[in-house]
Amino acid sequence: MSARAVAAFAICLLAADALAEPARRPAPEELLSGAAFVRPETRALQDDSFANPGLIWVERGAALWQTADGDAGMSCADCHGDAEAAMKGVGATYPKVVGGRLLNLSQRINQCRVEHMAAAPYVAAEHEAESENLLSLEAYVKAQSAGMPMAVAVDGAAAPFFERGRELYFQRVGQMDLACTMCHDDRAGHALRAEPISQGHVNGFPAYILRWDGLASAQRRFRFCNEQARAEPLAIGHDDYNAIELYVAWRGATLPIESPAVRR
Amino acid sequence: MAARKDQKRRLKIVPATARKGDIVTVKTLAEHEMEPGVRFNPETLVVYPRFIINKLICRYSGREVFVADWYSGVSANPYLAFKLRAEESGTVEIEWVDDYNQSTFARAELTVVDAAAPAAGDAPGGGDAPGGGDDATTG
Amino acid sequence: MAEKSDKPTTGALSRRRLLAGAAAGGAALALGRAARADDYDFSGNPFRDRFQTFRQTFRVEPNRQEAERIVRAIIRGRTPIPGVVTVIAPDIAENGAAVPVTIKIDSPMTADDYPELVHLIALENPFPEIAKYRFTPACGVAEVTLRCRMRTSAPLVVVAEMSTGAVGVTERFVEVTLGACS
Lengths: 264, 139, 182
Prior knowledge:
Chain A has helices at about 5-15, 40-45, 55-65, 75-80, 85, 105-115, 130-145, 160-170, 180-185, 220-230, 240-250, and strands at about 95-100, 100-105, 190, 195, 205-210, 215, 260-264. By secondary structure, chain A is mainly alpha-helical.
């Protein structure tokens, strides 16, 4: 079936759907992490403290944490000390408003590098989608919050960004004219070709994605989602993606951080 | 893809302390993109050349006990677990050899106690000694 | 044409390479040792099953008949013994890039009787041979766990060649589906 036919079919099916009322999110008892939508072997791999490939990045992040970098000759540990103590619970609060801007965890790490370590921010190499070192640090910091519920702030300074994120979550995009809610709220658990649609939470990110053979951030996954709906993907770190990540993190609040998860 | 010199190697022997004659599990994990040589750049149609780890050699107290020959069908970040019979206390060394004949290594200690001695888990060395049988990582 | 010899001269090798190249589409013949007569098996595609040359720069499509020929070539006319090899793999793979497989071989693991060479082959992969494992009696138990790549739904075949000359073969079908977003 051509993409156009599929899109037309989808539109016919869904034209009757009113877009969901703005503040809707799954009730806490309905929340299911992405781990509930993968096969048992994949879940076992995620729980394996040795074989989970994402732990490679966590290990590298631990080493980077101790490594001095930049003109100030400092490492993360020089200011923050032991990450297990200092970063406990920190990863669960991102994306977060810092200095008037909504930043995700990797942007915050880069900002720290520039401001306090006088080091160049990590940028992706030409052949990479994301910087491996930045992913490693993000995974390491996130892993210190493993098991803790996601707890992002959506009031106060974060309120306008939260509104923007909510607006984008319900916005139909792409040739397929799909909004996030149409798959992840209305059709979670249904099969899309041979895979079950998950609820689209970000508690497992950065996650080891089997199709990319590597660790990936939530926003790289957003890009892929956009590409699949034949929408123009935004750059990783774009304000709109930060806003969506904030909304999705709020939507999944109380789900425990599972990073590094193993996902398709 | 991390710079080649940063790519991790992990090795763990479960349990790290065993009685003589027991079977222990050796778990290995290497960080490597294992480029299979069949993927191609969609614009230029140039195939990315194959670059994989093609050999894993396990030496126990210096003797080669297990060899795996890999081809492009092995997944990226290759995981391999196999068994060893605990005979004497010694170093278990894993060597990964890639297509350019570059080797990387990981080593872990396997402590073997006599059959009459306490079972695994009562090892005096504890789990924190470097290379003490827990995750021994290099790279 | 030059006579077959243990150490072919450069001229003979390049002429054979031209003929082989014409058949196989120009793959390089990279031998680490002296060539033997059965290296030049023109009944199929010799380069696919033996020489997955690094620096290969051409795309290869899966060929089920070739893969089955490779399995037959490994078994080499011996009668496989059933029940020696156990293959544990999921019915449906989460993703073809990482299919978890466990291979267990029932063997006494003595100096006289142990699995010398165990092959893992996927019949619908462009390069069917995934890995070869060489056990020794020091392993205690002949068991490996790995993650392999599968291009599409196919049988995974494990051929265990024992030091006694016996061979055990087991097959397990694994479904690899096209997922939601691919």
